[in-house]
């Protein structure tokens, strides 16, 4: 099969489409013919081997796993002898740790794939996995968002942010969003009642208070964030600045946790995990039309390097879809 692989760390020029072996299918595995995938920040950091501390996991001298890609949507090609949930031909979408930038990907039956709703295209479904799961776990698992609460999403125009605004709205929250001027109308169209253009208005000095702050941009300190938090509020930190070559966003995340010690407000820092219950929750929202993936740019598989390069420029919004 054809797959996008990288043999060394670097920017988009290290990514090549090559012929590799199809993944093996175990007794409890599902082989999916990938129709679409999308690019995530995690793919960029893995390909570039940044921050440097991450190479302890990625491989010190070079990548241990030369395959990339977490998101996928496609049709079931084959199933293992113990699989009962899926059959050949079923349309599915989901996420995997790596290997989705390829014509085929294999995932366990009970972790990483769910049925694709009929009202969602393969291209749209192929953008949901990593960003959608991250948004859901930030809001539900770690943010414990309840209907009627006020939630503020800092970084509402990216992949995670566009899903977070819609999921929070679907959960019955009153949603405020922080983004740049060019994305204000998009944030409103996704369901945000209040939108801050960060170039014109400092949301931390607005005088408004929220039950939950989802900080995706990682652009503010704990002292600034707590100005907008109610006394019993929660802060969920999803991302942070990557200027530190050695530690990347880790230094920001650790600093936030340390600064919040002893405060009544709760802070959570997490890395998203693959959970089918969260994928099923997203599937239901997609089927009801309460969540619709936002795609900024579309690429053919042959041009996946261009997609990675565009993401690396730091100006991408929403999702970048790749058709395979």
Topology:
Blueprint: E1 2-6, E2 15-19, E3 29-38, H1 41-48, H2 55-58, E4 71-79, E5 91-95, E6 104-108, E7 113-115, H3 122-125, H4 129-142, E8 150-154, H5 159-170, E9 174-179, H6 184-190, E10 194-197, E11 210-215, H7 222-225, E12 229-237, H8 250-259, E13 266-269, H9 276-288, E14 295-300, H10 304-312, E15 319-323
Parallel strand pairs: 8-9, 8-11, 9-10, 11-12, 12-13, 14-15
Antiparallel strand pairs: 1-2, 3-4, 3-6, 3-15, 4-5, 5-7
Helix pairs in contact: 4-5, 4-9
Give the termini separation: 11 Å
Q: Could you give the order of the helices and strands?
A: EEEHHEEEEHHEHEHEEHEHEHEHE
Radius of gyration: 19 Å
Biggest sheet features = 7 strands, mixed
Shape, please? Answer: globular
Would you report the number of β strands? Answer: 15
Count of discrete structural domains:
2
Question: If you had to describe this structure to a student in words, what would you say it looks like?
Answer:
The protein is an alpha/beta fold. It has two domains: 2-128 and 293-323, Alpha-Beta Complex (Quinone Oxidoreductase, Chain A, domain 1); 131-269, NAD(P)-binding Rossmann-like Domain (Rossmann fold), CATH 3.40.50. It has ten helices and 15 strands. The strands form three sheets. Strands 3, 4, 5, 6, 7, 14 and 15 form a seven-stranded mixed beta sheet that branches. Strand 9, helix 6 (184-190) and strand 10 (194-197) form a beta-alpha-beta unit. Helix 4 packs across helix 5 and helix 4 (129-142) crosses helix 9 (276-288). It starts with a strand and ends with a strand.
């Amino acid at each position: 099969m054809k797959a996008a692989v990288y043999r060394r760390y670097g920017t988009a020029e290290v990514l090549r489409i090559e012929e590799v072996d199809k993944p093996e299918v175990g007794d409890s595995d599902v082989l999916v013919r990938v129709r679409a995938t999308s690019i995530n920040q995690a793919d960029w950091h893995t390909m570039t081997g940044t921050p440097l501390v991450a190479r302890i996991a990625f491989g010190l001298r070079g990548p241990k796993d030369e395959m990339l890609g977490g998101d996928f949507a496609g049709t079931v090609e084959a199933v293992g002898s113990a699989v009962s949930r899926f059959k050949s031909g079923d349309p599915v979408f989901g996420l995997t740790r790596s290997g989705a930038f390829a014509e085929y990907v294999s995932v366990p039956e009970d972790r990483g794939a769910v049925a694709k709703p009929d009202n969602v295209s393969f291209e749209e479904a192929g953008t949901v996995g990593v960003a959608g799961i991250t948004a859901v776990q930030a809001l539900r698992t770690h943010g414990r968002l309840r209907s009627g609460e006020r939630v503020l999403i800092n970084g509402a125009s990216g992949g995670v942010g566009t899903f977070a605004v819609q999921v929070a709205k679907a959960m019955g929250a009153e949603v405020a969003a922080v983004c740049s001027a060019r994305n204000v109308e998009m944030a409103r169209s996704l369901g945000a009642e209040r939108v801050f253009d960060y170039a014109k208005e400092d949301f931390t000095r607005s005088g408004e208070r929220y039950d939950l702050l989802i900080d995706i941009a990682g652009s503010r300190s704990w002292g600034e964030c707590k100005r907008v938090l109610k006394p019993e509020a929660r802060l969920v930190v999803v991302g942070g600045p990557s200027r530190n070559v050695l530690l990347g966003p880790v230094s920001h995340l650790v600093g936030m946790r340390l600064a919040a010690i002893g405060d009544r407000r709760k802070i959570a820092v997490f890395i998203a995990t693959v959970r089918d219950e969260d994928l099923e929750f997203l599937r239901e929202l997609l089927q009801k039309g309460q969540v619709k993936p936002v795609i900024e740019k579309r690429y053919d598989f042959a041009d996946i390097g261009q997609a990675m390069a565009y993401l690396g420029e730091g100006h991408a919004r929403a999702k970048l879809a790749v058709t395979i």
